[in-house]
Design a protein that fits this description.
This protein is an alpha/beta fold. The chain is built from ten helices and nine strands. A hairpin with a 2-residue loop joins strand 7 (172-177) and strand 8 (180-184).
Length: 252
């Protein structure tokens, strides 16, 4: 507990043992002074319910109590599974700041989560695993930059001419509107230089990075295990047919 603090289950407590008593029991087992119990209750904002039974706690309050338990030993490393689950917006904002400060002090936080928008704000480094295989192990910024959905948006009164030039250079071009295109496979500098060389005026030249969710979906497209149908069946007969496919591939 003094080395690694874990939060793997938001309800990992006896429902009728008071919150403070639950933490005192864990502290005694790890040789942690009682004074630390009150410190972590203050850290996670549960002082006012310390003497209440957690059976009435919301999921978010259970998460806070679990985090308090993980912090009891003042560990160097935290391992958290979906720590923001059940927290309200204020609680999520608090958790984000707390974990960033924890990491900034020279310690480490490992978070497993499917809340990718939150991970984009919180994480420095990303590990993506699909079907037991490591798909990515790099900084969040590098992972997002590699996504095919990261493009450069270009706007110009001569956009058709510029699009032809970019295609000739091997870039990917997608029409945004009558005066703008989204370009992949070329960075802002090379696009700007190409436009300058042909005296094409630009009204916009902007990087549009993929979101972490978009990059994740790109990277894990071949590792999805459970694929739902795109539309709900219209009848029980169709439902039965959909649930008993003829091919093994359909059972994923």
């Amino acid at each position: 507990m003094r080395e690694v603090g874990t939060l793997l289950d938001a309800k990992a407590f006896h429902p009728t043992r008071k919150a403070r008593s639950h933490l005192r029991m864990l502290a005694a087992a790890a040789g942690v002074p009682d004074a630390r119990v009150d410190e972590v209750l203050h850290l996670v904002g549960l002082e006012s319910v310390a003497k209440k039974q957690p059976k009435g706690f919301s999921l978010g309050m259970g998460q806070r109590l679990g985090l308090a338990a993980a912090l009891l030993g003042d560990p160097h490393t935290l391992i958290l599974d979906e720590p923001a689950n059940g927290l309200d917006p204020q609680g999520i904002n608090w958790l984000r700041g707390f974990l960033k400060d924890f990491a900034a002090s020279g310690r480490s936080v490992f978070v497993s989560s499917h809340l990718l928008a939150e991970m984009a704000l919180m994480a420095d480094h990303l590990v993506v695993i699909g079907k037991g295989r490591m798909i990515a192990n790099e900084s969040v910024a590098d992972f997002v930059t590699k996504s095919s959905r990261s493009v450069v948006v270009v706007q110009s009164p001569r956009i058709d001419e510029l699009a032809e030039l970019l295609l000739a250079e091997g870039a990917g071009v997608e029409r945004v509107d009558s005066t703008a295109i989204a370009v992949s496979g070329a960075d802002r500098a090379s696009i700007g230089e190409l436009a300058y060389a042909h005296q094409i005026m630009l009204h916009e030249l902007t990087d549009r990075a993929a979101t972490l969710e978009e990059a994740f979906l790109d990277a894990t497209a071949d590792a999805e295990q459970f694929v739902a149908t795109s539309a709900a069946p219209r009848s029980m007969g169709e439902a039965a047919a959909a649930s008993t496919p003829d091919t093994p591939e359909g059972t994923r």
